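Thread title: Can someone regenerate the structure for this chain?

I was given the following input by a collaborator and told the matching structure tokens would be attached. They weren't. Posting the sequence so someone can regenerate them.
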Amino acid sequence: MTDLKCLTTKEVARLCRVSDATVKRWEAAGLVRSERTSGGHRRFRAEEIIRFQREQNLGLKQSHGDESVVSAAARRRENKHPFGSPLFKSLVAGCEEAAANVLIGEYLQGKSLTEIFDDLICPAMRQIGELWMEGELTISQEHLATRTAHNSIYKLRNTLSVPPMTGELAVCCAMEGDLHELPTHLAQITIENEGWEVLNFGANTPLKCLAKEILQRSPKAICISATIIGNLEPLARDYKCFVERIGKLRIPIIFGGRAFNDKSIRQYFPAEFYAQSFTEVAEFTQKSKKKV
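Best answer:
Regenerated them for you:
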């Protein structure tokens, strides 16, 4: 294994609030597994530590959703993650395990799920997209990084405890013509983390088809993302028809993504809420949960 991507004995001790010697005794007793670097030093995988903490009730918060999203957003503004981060490097290199260790390690350090999305994943993927646009990365590299991000996020997701389910349903998708799958997956996981069931129709979803699903399933919220909007006028017409078709259900619509940062675009797509971050998506979902 490499020497860089896993937790050291000292880091595990700090996370579990014990001494280095205690961690070594745990390992010797077989309670927690480690691997050795080429230099003979112990390294612990993030997934292994989070498993052990859950079993022993050590170090972790009782619920990963117990922190106010408002305080999380305030802290996020103070701690912007720089470009060229370890996560960025792992994604570009296609190192799924290393990327997952970065995400899980941040969770172990106390970051909330939406902070990880907003502070780590989004800046890294934005930089990857910009480098591709500038010709510094090939389309193959961009695809590899995106796939690595998907897989590492699901590894993070599998470490989280299951929240109490509310019985409410939300629908997610990306606008027709938008081929970006990742934002819809992050929105799905964010909303699921609040105890909702989510149907994710993925990228490039025609609104005409979406309307049929909405009328059939009657969700409590609709979340639509768009990184770019190409054919503005046809999409605006389709959206107007979409709203008219589902209007009697009075379902709140959430828009997110870079395209809707432009207020001139928003006027073509009126909605209840325009989310600027996944923390705001979580906050909107929490408020909606209180109303139902």
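Residues 61-82 have pLDDT under 50 and may be disordered.
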